[in-house]
Amino acid sequence: MAQFRGPDGTDVAAALAAAGVHIVHAPGDDAPPALIAEVLPVGERDVRQVVLVEPPGVDDVHTGMGAWHINSVDEVHYVRTGRGLVQFALAEGICSVELLAGDVMIVRKAEHRYLPLESQEWVIRHSGPPGGGLGVRETGRSAEPWPIPR
Questions:
Q1: Are 125 and 48 in contact (CB under 8 A)?
Q2: Strand order of the sheet with strand 136-138?
Q3: Cα separations in angstroms, 130 against 48, 83, 99, 114
Q4: CATH for 16
Q5: Is residue 128 part of a domain?
Q6: Cα(119)–Cα(79) distance, integer angstroms
Q7: Into how many domains does the chain fold?
Q8: What is the pLDDT of residues 53-99, one digit of tens each?
Q9: Is residue 134 part of a domain?
Q10: Residue 33: inside a domain, yes or no?
Q11: How far apart are the C-alpha atoms of 127 and 130, rounded to whole Å?
């Protein structure tokens, strides 16, 4: 089950929701169909890919998905295995979420970055036409150090 950390005094769940982010725990092998249907339109709910993501080298922690970015699509991703860290840039400050097996991450165009802490298998779904990508756009936010999950 995901672990949340945000600025002191912040209702992290409410701040995430205001930014277009919702994270739930759904043990099993994939995100629940009803949850997928709440986010993605008919015809865009199929699995786009299943990926195994490895922790980056020390020089690569702020590149690719580790760089602050916004995707141009709505996303519903399911974590099948492993442990990773995602951060979101919110009006209240930076929020960190440790994602574990069974977590579903819904992101509706919120600024974020991702760091796998160990091998993680993800089931990737997102809006947009079949064959389309995430439409990643780096935001240029400076890459401060990653927090150390406890």
A1: yes
A2: 3-5, 93-100, 83-90, 112-116, 69-71, 136-138
A3: 8, 28, 27, 24
A4: 2.60.120.10
A5: yes
A6: 11
A7: 1
A8: 999 988 888 988 899 999 999 999 999 999 999 999 999 999 999 99
A9: yes
A10: yes
A11: 9
